[in-house]
Amino acid sequence: MDEVIDLNSDGYFMGEALRQARKAFQADETPVGAVVTLRGKIIARAFNQVETLKDATAHAEMLAITQAESVMGDWRLNECELYVTKEPCPMCAGAMVHARLSRVIFGCGDPRGGAAGGLLNLLQNPSLNHRCAITAQVRLEECRALLQDFFREKRAKGGVDQVRID
After folding, report:
1. Which of 15, 46, 53, 163 has the fewest Cβ atoms within 10 Å of its own Cβ atom?
2. Is 58 in contact with 52 (CB distance < 8 Å)?
3. Of 46, 26, 48, whose CA–CA distance to 34 is shortest?
């Protein structure tokens, strides 16, 4: 019997974020990809472009949020969910809170710099005006492997110091 694919599942949408992350890998960018959904439909897709654009803010999440805001015609993304292959950093988590995303779903954690429970949790900080629901470790192994492969290649070429991916 053929396996049924649930096109509204977290696994499916994380797969789409992984496609974006692979584009980043091919562009020699840190392989992080993101998609934003609204009621089960993708409205934005992006991958890291920090090196390409020479812009420290060009993280996949930031680019996807900007794209989604353009689609929505508003900066408020109340009914939207963001899928990202790696736990968001503080900059991205701050943008997610300010954009009022309903939920953030990520693949692998970042204990040294993650802001969705790794190092700290900005997404659910009670002092802020909004809190995002969090779902972690969706397609964890695939997300982790992509990052580990990228940094293994970089280290082999002498391009980076030790990086820990959890």
Report:
1. 53
2. yes
3. 46
Residue 57 to residue 91: CA distance in whole angstroms: 8
Confidence of residue 157 (pLDDT cuts 50, 70, 90): confident
CA triple 84-14-67, angle to 5 deg: 50
Instruction: Single out the residue of 113, 119, 118 nearest to residue 163, CA to CA.
Output: 113
CA-based end-to-end distance of the chain: 35
Tokens representing 73?
């015609």
CA R_g for the chain: 15
- 141's tokens: 């192994």
Could you give the CA distance from residue 58 to residue 138 in angstroms, rounded to a whole number?
Answer: 23
Catalytic site residue 16?
no
Q: Which two tokens stand for residue 27?
A: 């562009």
Q: Give bridge partners of residue 35 from the DSSP assignment.
A: 45, 83
Helices (H), the chain: 10-26, 50-53, 60-72, 90-98, 140-156
**pLDDT tens readout for residues 10-41:** 999 999 999 999 999 999 999 999 999 999 99
Choosing from 16, 51, 61, 81, the catalytic residue is 61
> How is residue 18 written in tokens?
């992984």
